Amino acid sequence: MASKPTTIDPREAAHFGTMAADWWDPRGSSAMLHKLNPVRLHYIRNAIDHHWPQGNGGFRPLEGKRAIDVGCGAGLLAEPLARLGATVTALDAAEENIAVARAHAQGQGLAIDYRATPVEALEAEGFDLVTSMEVIEHVADPAAFVAALAGKLARDGLLVMSTPNRTPLSRLAMITIGESIGGIPKGTHDWHKFLNPEELAGLLEGAGLEVTDVTGLSFDPRYGFALSANKAINYLLTARHPRG
Predict the structure, then answer these.
(1) What is the helix (H) or strand (E) element at residue 238, kind and residue range?
(2) 127-133 and 87-91 as β-strands: parallel, antiparallel, unpaired?
(3) What pairing do the DSSP bridges indicate for beta strands 153-164 and 234-240?
(4) Listed residue (197, 159, 188, 215) closest to 30, CA to CA
(5) Where are the beta strands (DSSP E) in 72-182?
């Protein structure tokens, strides 16, 4: 039987697999993700409350909803989504990351369906929330990857993504500085694979979705990461199926 096509880049999967052992160490190789996580969780929570305004606004706004996190690493985002009430499926290309994620979730008493499976190969669909954070810049075929994400989204669902912008400032911040002294492992990024907001919006529209928000993610040495109108380094966006 022929295997299904995948957008996973084996070299990228191997690179991130080497980080698995200390993924949950806030001072380890994923230190930058630990710093990013609170800000992107704030963005996701705001997006949830805006997309489902009929929600209870409490601690578990995803109660009764299904979420999938694609490119989950060792679960930095999947675990908070589960705590927000979602039934969570989480995918990653590296078996090493999935093993660490399962062990950590078990220790936290969280039931998360972790799989080392390409999103294209997953048969399940109709997820209320689809997230993919800092992933698209590492895949082999961004258009096919976005199409696969869109294919998993329920008709009234919400998709949230984040990715670096392709600007001179992002090259300086994330590669020249970040991968030398800023806590990002060397070789993590290829600046030429970064997408600007217009390019990513075009891929989402080509997959049948409409972008409803684009917000920048900026960094201030005094305060750390913050949501911003400035999209020059990194940005987050939300998308949904058109309503009509």
Answers:
(1) strand 234-240
(2) unpaired
(3) antiparallel
(4) 188
(5) 87-91, 113-115, 127-133, 153-164
Percentages of the chain per state (helix, strand, coil), in multiples of 5? 40, 25, 40
Q: Which residues does 230 contact at the CB level (< 8 Å), separation at least 6?
A: 216, 218
Among 39-48, 113-122, 175-184, the least confident range? 175-184
**Beta strands in 40-106, from DSSP E residues, in sequence order:** 66-70, 87-91
| Mean pLDDT, rounded, for 71-99 | 96
- pLDDT of 34 strictly over 90: no
Taking Cα atoms as reference points, which of 163, 135, 146, 123 lies closest to residue 9? 135
- Is-contact 70 132, C-beta < 8 A? yes
As a whole number of angstroms, the distance between CA 123 and CA 119 comes to: 9
Q: In the prediction, which pLDDT does 223 show? A: 78
List, in sequence order, every residue forming a beta bridge with 88; answer none if it has no partner. Answer: 67
Q: What is the mean pLDDT of residues 34-39?
A: 90
End-to-end CA separation in angstroms for the chain = 40
Q: What is the pLDDT of residue 155?
A: 97
pTM for the model stands at 0.90
* 51-55, 93-97, 158-162: the lowest-pLDDT one: 51-55
Which strands form 153-164's sheet, in the order they lie side by side? 113-115, 87-91, 66-70, 127-133, 153-164, 234-240, 210-220, 224-228
Strand 210-220 relative to strand 234-240: parallel, antiparallel, unpaired? antiparallel
How far apart are alpha carbons 177 and 173 in whole angstroms? 5
3-state SS class at 49? helix
- Backbone φ, ψ for residue 92 (5° rounding): -150, 155
